[in-house]
Specification:
Elements lengths: L1 H10 L9 H12 L20 H4 L5 H18 L8
Helix pairs in contact: 1-4, 2-4
């Protein structure tokens, strides 16, 4: 489920759904940086009650975190201004 969420967040059309961009980026960044928590989905496997709330919300699956990095790249590429070829 976490891998699919990471991929889905990278494939959304944020030009038409810009209201979802901040929360999606927060989730993706939080999933690869342990000190930040994902606001969309909590980690299913976190059981240690001594962990901070932020680390409990981090995606635990390494493939999901890899997909988060890929999705961040896809979002930035999709939203970046395209250079004009006419000079």
């Amino acid at each position: 489920m976490q891998q699919g969420l990471a991929r889905l967040l990278g494939l959304m059309d944020y030009k038409n759904h810009s209201h979802a961009l901040p929360e999606a980026m927060d989730c993706l960044v939080a999933s690869v940086i342990p000190s930040v928590g994902c606001p969309i989905i909590p980690c299913i496997s976190s059981t240690d009650s001594d962990r901070s709330h932020q680390s409990e919300l981090r995606m635990t699956d390494v493939e999901a975190r890899r997909n988060c990095i890929t999705s961040i790249q896809l979002i930035l590429i999709a939203l970046a201004p395209q250079p004009s070829h006419s000079m």
